[in-house]
TrEMBL record:
Any Pfam family hit: TsaE
Species name: [Collinsella] massiliensis
Keyword Glycoprotein: no
Keywords: ATP-binding, Cytoplasm, Magnesium, Metal-binding, Nucleotide-binding, Transferase, tRNA processing
Protein's name in the database: tRNA threonylcarbamoyladenosine biosynthesis protein TsaE
Length: 167
């Protein structure tokens, strides 16, 4: 593994596997109600990160992009994982139909791709996982906490990645 902690709440991924491993390290720290908003451009690695989280929770089913379904539930692990991809959603009023308000902030862990465009309509308590493309296979991953629980989660993730990947 080449995943590295570059500084506080900031990591370097050198491969798809590193980003998945990062997700795996996050998984044991997640609790019901946690919301992670995954940001970064197209193809930056949001779905691969989610794949790692599902594996870390113990769900063996494959994670694919739920672009057409908008939501995929992975309920074979320690807690349910709700994976949303809101890329194709054009208007905030369409959010209601995705079922997101039934779960967001209280049931399972919710991971959102392209959720930042509806930030005002969703929740203001979330952990931002910001992935930036720095080369063909390199990414920086930064955590941006919004709210008390997100702060706690960011601290726990930082410690876990530091321990597993070196500071
Ligand atoms: N360090 C890395 N971390 C994650 N993915 C990487 C990395 N290096 C290369 N890749 C490649 O980048 C692509 C990431 O795809 P992925 O579907 O996870 O992105 P995404 O952010 O979910 O995109 P979209 O916005 O289209 O949903 C994959 O083809 C993967 O192999
Ligand atoms: Mg995706």
């Amino acid at each position: 593994m080449t995943l590295r902690r570059e500084g506080p709440r900031r990591y370097l991924s050198a491969s798809q596997e590193d980003t998945e491993r990062f997700g795996e390290l996050v998984a044991p720290l997640l609790a019901d109600g946690d919301v992670l908003v995954l940001t970064g451009g197209l193809g930056v690695g949001k779905t691969h990160f989610t794949k790692g989280v599902a594996r870390g929770l113990g769900d063996a089913h494959p994670v694919t992009s739920p672009t057409f379904a908008l939501m995929a539930v992975h309920d074979g692990g320690r807690i349910p994982l709700f994976h949303f991809d809101l890329y194709r959603l054009e208007h905030a009023y369409e959010l209601e139909d995705t079922g997101i308000f039934d779960v967001l902030g209280y049931e399972g862990a919710c991971l959102l791709e392209w959720g930042e465009q509806f930030q005002d309509e969703l929740t203001d308590e979330f952990l931002g996982v910001v992935i930036a493309h720095t080369g063909e296979s390199t990414r920086t991953i930064s955590l941006e906490a919004h709210g008390g629980r997100a702060e706690e989660l960011a601290e726990a993730i930082d410690a876990a990645v530091g321990a597993a990947a070196g500071a």
